[in-house]
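Entry 12.
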Amino acid sequence: MRHRTLLACLLATATLAACGRDAPQALGTLERDRITLPAPAAERIVAIDVREGQVVRAGERVMQLETTRTRSRLEAARAQARQAGEALAELEAGPRSESIEQARAQLAAARAQAADAQAYYARLQPLGRRQLVAAADVDRARAAAGNASAAVRQAEAALLELEHGSRSEAIAQGVAAEAARRAEARAQAVDLAKLDVLAPRDAFVEQLPYELGDQAPVGAPLAVLLVGDAPFARVYVPEPIRASIRVGQKARVRIEGRDDALDGEVRMIRGEPNFTPYYALTGEDAARLSYVAEISLHGEGVQALPVGVPVTATFPGARDGGGE
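Predicted 3D structure (tokens):
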């Protein structure tokens, strides 16, 4: 049906073009700016709150995806953040008094063992010089005394470490670890919120590609929305008149099905050409490139115009560079 309408518009426009080229023209359709709402995760659609053609307001929910998996990830991230916070608090509080007392007791025991080992070695030394005991026994006593002295130094260092508390570097690492865990929890919370697919601005719902129960891949368009206060005309400017068309150029736009023409203004024209679509081919333009242009429209009832309707734009004052 749309193609037949476009062909009818084509014939009418070709007739106008045959009558004269005083007002250069371009063909196209009415359009609105489109935005898509991509799937944030590969989750099943559990609710669709709108229908195609419905008006939605900014922040209104369009559909909801299943939240079970993402919610579990959020709970795990929050638990890890709490764990990191408790570990940081432990570092900041320093060692318990009981741990310090235990270290002191271990130091005392090490000193007692060292004193006993040193005394035993002192008793064996003169006996060894007189060869009343084996030299191996003296050597073992000397080694035991040395080991006991080393154990004392180790116990002293352990006690000093506890008494001095946590290092500033360890506390800094704990702060960083807690911040990382909390940031991960916030990211998971954002991912969970995205499963409620919301309209980012006031819009018309043009298309809902998926049905209830479908599971779209990540990035697939869950909804296509039409935004903007009014539609605009997207036309294909033939190459012969491109040099005369500029942003801000005044235009007259005739819409299929309306008797009156609307005033317009070129708001954008692309610098890169492309091939003219089949419905905009008229006469010599069939062999030429064209340039996509957008024309904002002014006039009564513009906001209610439907998209996809064929239009013909003329540019008063523009010159056809291909004319004789």
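Annotation: The CA atoms of residues 15 and 70 lie 61 Å apart. The two ends are 38 Å apart (CA to CA).
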